[in-house]
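Entry type: protein chain
Record version: 2
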Amino acid sequence: MRIKIITLLLGAISCLISTTTFAQLQTGKDGLPTTKDPEVTEYYTPVPNEVSPGLTPYASPSDAIVLFNGSDASAWQNSATKAASEWSVASGILSVVPGKGNISTKQKFGSFQMHIEWRIPATVTGKGQERGNSGIFLQGLYELQVLDSYHQETYVNGQAGSIYKQAVPLVNACRKPGEWQSYDILFTAPVYSPSKRILYPARVTVFQNGILVLNDFYIQGPTQYIGMPAYTNYDGTGPIMLQDHNNPTSFRNIWIREL
């Protein structure tokens, strides 16, 4: 008897809730439900955190991790040996010293927003891939190409703005050698199953000099110079790596926001 009463009460409550819900809804011309009360579609939680923008468009916001502030390279280390970076720091600029090796951040990141500025020397020799070549490796695995592609020919999935050997940029947004250029990067980390199988590949959106060059591109796996990329047993995090390609490329104003 008690169970039957409880069942009847639950049914009455459910009917009341349903009646209230349907009383708030009406069908629009497109057949989809609309609300009579605008407050039904207003939310007050969770409240977003407040982040103070930088004083200039490219300045780091208040919640950013500054990876290079112009004075030292303490956030970076040699990628192979884990020793201190031997790249040059002068006049607020971090520059490749050819032969000193790639450098990586000491900190690892998952998904992030990143800003970085780079410059090819004003006087640059060579052709194709020999013109100021460097790279920004997201999570140390996926190369966003750095290269002088201003009126210069090379394979299009190897020019500036490409995910090397994978994504061709939507447009060539390069400035002349000697001028500073910028990348604004939105990176979504890959997701793996407990058994280390890839569930969701990494994705990236890139603006070069304020122009969209990659739009939510699904990365096929870690960058390969020869052969096809393929995901292997990674944990979905990694450092930012800057490449020493024996070209004196320079960087400045590097910051990142963890997402």
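Comment: The chain has a mean pLDDT of 88.
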